[in-house]
Amino acid sequence: MIIFSTVGGTTRKVAKRIAARIGDTVCVDAQTARATPPVSDDRCVVLLCPAYGDEELEDHFESLLLEWNWSALSGNSFAFCEIGIYTGYEDFGHGLARMVRQKLHAHGLRELVPPLSVDAVPISDWAMIDAWADLLVRPSGVIDE
């Protein structure tokens, strides 16, 4: 399952590209996901969120992170990608990954791959996104556990 939040559409494009690359058919926005209970069969949840500033989440993603029943996915994996303007930004420790990881680890989810921070201006770094997506799957095309 891939869950994304977007305002201008960039994160949606990245989410759909990752979904196509890893063969995941469930790709929903954070607002839709929030209205649906988590399914423990989703062995890995891939999360994508635009970054608006130091530790500033998009509103729907923040609601999902704080209100969704993440404990229902305890023992499952997650992967996180933040998309923003990182030109000249040297310390990714102030981005979104720290708080997303902290919240999901507290609910028993384990991180499948290191988080990805992507510069989306003027265009997304597709080679970097593709390489990260490739880490999510085994050669057999199944999400790695």
UniProtKB/TrEMBL annotation:
Entry-linked PROSITE patterns: FLAVODOXIN_LIKE (PS50902)
InterPro entries: Flavodoxin/NO_synth, Flavoprotein-like_sf
Residue span(s) of domain Flavodoxin-like: 1-137
Superkingdom of origin: Bacteria
Keywords assigned: Flavoprotein, FMN
Name of the protein in its database record: Flavodoxin domain-containing protein
Species annotation: Luteimonas flava
Source lineage: Bacteria, Pseudomonadati, Pseudomonadota, Gammaproteobacteria, Lysobacterales
